[in-house]
Specification:
29% of the residues lie in helices and 28% in strands. By secondary structure, the protein is of the alpha+beta class. The protein folds into two domains: 2-61, no CATH class; 81-270, Glutamine Phosphoribosylpyrophosphate, subunit 1, domain 1, CATH 3.60.20. The strands form five sheets. Strands 5, 6, 14, 15, 16 and 17 form a six-stranded antiparallel β-sheet that branches. Strands 9-10-11-12-13 form a five-stranded antiparallel β-sheet, covered by helices on one side. A hairpin with a 2-residue loop joins strand 7 and strand 8 (103-106).
Length: 271
């Protein structure tokens, strides 16, 4: 995605046609317009363009707000993510359970995602929103390095994400992101554009239980091993009490040499 703009591929006829307004105005067939038990999908594309009526996948055309595609249940979010600063850098941890209402959608989700070689972000909220915007942020960080021959700072990346999310304030966009990087630096960015800097953040339905462990003593003087044990203990206690958090724990350590990931551990073995 980053090289696409630098090399000018975004101006090719195929990309321009895909991004044209004729492809963006898509209508979903009415419920009574069924053909063989399947709905009919229509898009505003003329025959001279060489595209048929069913050339687009229904999964790309369906909208959650469409009356013909009702949501089976109300969306609710639950997770446990945390990050804190100590003398050895930044320690980041999160559980791996993705929940939707009363269901466990996926037990092995990556909620801690590397954005760049020096930057790691945690995701809490709507999984699709978080993954999309972190991919966009990773693209912008790569573009910045290609154009300026230096990496974007952690604060600059967090501020960039805040500016990109602010226009969506008041919408159903749900994304809570913690940006951790060398410095050490730790920032919290919300989907309404909130931009905060601190030394300890925990977000999600299990965050009250994680805070109870993290606030129990000083953190700055911890060694890397002790900080890792503290982060793991906080996530474990949160998953023990919060029904929307659980399964495994991912732990990342960010230092001046970059980020390093610890092997994923199954928290169910300790119960």
């Amino acid at each position: 995605m980053a090289l696409q703009d630098v090399c000018g591929f975004s101006k090719t006829p195929l990309v321009l046609r895909w991004n044209s307004p004729s492809w963006s105005s898509v209508t979903v067939g009415a419920p009574h317009g069924l053909d063989g038990g399947r709905p009919t999908w229509r898009h505003a594309c003329s025959d001279k363009d060489g595209c048929s009526e069913n050339s687009l996948s229904p999964f790309l055309l369906a909208s959650p707000s469409s009356p013909s595609v009702p949501l089976p249940f109300s969306l609710s979010h639950g997770t446990t993510t945390l990050a804190f600063v100590f003398q050895g850098g930044v320690m980041v941890a999160a559980d791996t359970r993705a929940s939707c209402s009363g269901l466990i959608a996926c037990p092995e989700v990556h909620k801690v995602m590397p954005v760049h070689s020096h930057l790691v972000a945690t995701a809490s909220g709507s999984g699709a929103d978080c993954m999309f915007w972190q991919r966009v942020l990773a693209r912008e960080c790569r573009l910045y390095q290609l154009r300026n021959h230096r990496r974007l700072s952690v604060g600059g990346a967090a501020k960039l994400l805040s500016h990109m999310l602010h226009p969506f304030k008041g919408t159903k966009l749900c994304s809570r992101t913690k940006m951790s990087g060398r410095g050490p630096r730790l920032y919290y960015v919300c989907s309404d554009g909130t931009f905060l800097q601190g030394e300890l953040f925990s977000v999600g339905s299990g965050s009250p239980y994680a805070y109870a462990v993290l606030d129990g003593g000083p953190r700055w003087g911890l060694s890397v091993g002790d900080a890792c044990v503290l982060a793991r203990e906080a996530v474990f206690r949160a998953t023990h009490r919060d029904a929307y958090s659980g399964n495994c724990v991912d732990i990342f350590h960010i230092s001046s040499q970059g980020w390093r990931r610890r092997e994923r551990e199954d928290l169910r073995e300790d119960t």
